[in-house]
Amino acid sequence: MAKRKTKYVCQECGYETPKWMGKCPGCHNWNTFVEEVVASQTSGARHTFQVEGSLKGKPEKITAIQSEREPRVTTMMPEFNRVLGGGIVPGSLVLIGGDPGIGKSTLLLQVSSQLADKKLNVLYISGEESARQTKLRADRLGVTSDNLYVLSETNLVDIGNQIEQLNPGFVVIDSIQTIYREEVSSAPGSVSQVRECTSELMRIAKSKGIPIFIVGHVTKEGSIAGPRLLEHMVDAVLYFEGERHHTFRILRGVKNRFGSTNEMGIFEMKEEGLREVSNPSEIFLEERSQGAAGSTVVASMEGSRPVLVEIQALISPTSYGNPRRMATGIDHNRVPLLMAVLEKRVGLMLQNQDAYVKVAGGVKLDEPAIDLAVAVSVASSFRDQPSRPDDILIGEVGLTGEVRRVARIDQRVKEAAKLGFKRAIIPQKNLDGWTPPDSIEILGVNTVHDALKATLGGN
Fold first, then answer.
1. In angstroms, rounded to a whole number, what is the distance separating the alpha carbons of residues 350 and 193?
2. What is the CA angle 139-142-146, rounded to 5?
3. Per-residue pLDDT tens digits for 315-356
4. In CA terms, which of 18, 125, 230, 334 is 20 to 30 Å from 198?
């Protein structure tokens, strides 16, 4: 009998080694290696779906290739269409990740129902639930279309055969970690299984022009489980984010070959399913306290959309040797940086103060245009002096205390004027080249000191 060959594969990055190792040389994580059996080269033929013309193609001049705009299939959710770049592209492979129980299956079942109502055959494949369990969710969501087919299966070959017979216009795989190939000896969810199954699904999508959405589990750090190769293989990667204690869910695109990245769609979780939020700025500001110190509003760009959110800061004397610096919703490294600018350039004594900064509503902001609003919030809380409730602040803060220009200032200010804000404090360099709305006053500032003088008064 031939000796069985094995290898050890890191479940985080896919690094392979012939012997077990405690620490992975690739991703430097501990205890991530799992033993897998090496498939024999003489084993049975693999079940593959040949991509049409993939081996017989010839090089063509780029000027001779006819460029055609990909037709898109739109759903009844404009927020979902926005994140995908305008709709679902035929033949695309889309990966959706998110925490357990956040609503990934609910979202895809609602999308499947809407596409089925357009007389499109939809195949919903669940490897985690039975058909009866999926039916219970469908009853709660009011899904009654006859064009929606449900299959409970985990064998990739059987899934491929069902797709061949039904020839659907849309396929959902929930989830990729439960699907397996018999030729791969490792368990479902391992690096080898995820890689092979995703590769096969990509062949099916490209050869038949069927859009396939696959659900991916996430690790405790929040990233999609499995090798990073999984995100490179698919056409789009969407993250479904939110907190269990909030009803709002955010669908964020981090990769999209057919549209803009960093787009964001906002939904609200109801008993009857997810309901899209058409005006997120109004939702995020509806619970704002009027006249409270440490509260400001900033217009942040999420993809192509301006979103107005509230930034809150709380400054209090420390009871520790080292003051605490905590931030929720923004990069925690920016808080001590901006506090150092306020201390050095403005003269605020913050070295013995604890600082807590939060973006209200559970939104995560990562652009530099929020710097000015954070700095004014910190100074407002430190002085216990509220800023004007109808002010909006936009600008990047440099280490020398200057307020630097930001992009798309006209869209930000127009969104603020639409929601009733009376004054916008923006960088001086952003005053030229556009026409502001008549209902809002524009004030340009050069430094953080000028912004504090305009909002809080004093020297």
1. 53
2. 85
3. 999 988 889 999 999 999 999 999 999 999 999 999 999 999
4. 18
E strand or H helix that includes residue 117: helix 104-117
The candidate with the shortest Cα–Cα distance to 233, out of 259, 261, 197, is: 197
pTM passes above 0.85: no
Both tokens of 355, joined, read 């600082």
The residue count for the chain? 459
> And the tokens for 149?
């087919």
- The residue type found at 221 is E
Cα gap 272→286, rounded to integer Å: 23
pLDDT, tens digit, for every residue of 303-321?
A: 778 999 999 999 999 988 8
d(CA 127, CA 148): 17
Are residues 10 and 32 in contact, defined by beta-carbon separation less than 8 angstroms? yes
Are the C-beta atoms of 109 and 137 separated by less than 8 Å?
yes
Please report how the helices 131-141 and 104-117 are oriented relative to each other, as an axis angle in degrees rounded to 10: 70
335: enclosing H helix or E strand: helix 334-341
Is residue 300 within a helix (H) or strand (E), and if so which, with residue range? strand 295-302
Backbone angles phi, psi at 429, to 5 degrees: -70, -15
Which helix (H) or strand (E) segment is 383 a member of? helix 371-383
Whether 177 contacts 194, CB under 8 Å = yes
Nearest to 233 by CA among 200, 188, 192: 200
DSSP state, residue 260 = -
Tens-place pLDDT, residues 352-401: 999 999 998 778 888 999 999 999 999 999 999 999 999 999 999 999 99
CB atoms within 10 A of CB 245: 6
Alpha-carbon gap, residue 75 to 118, rounded angstroms: 9
How far is 51 from 210, CA to CA, in rounded Å?
Answer: 13
Question: Tell me, what's the pLDDT at 3?
Answer: 64
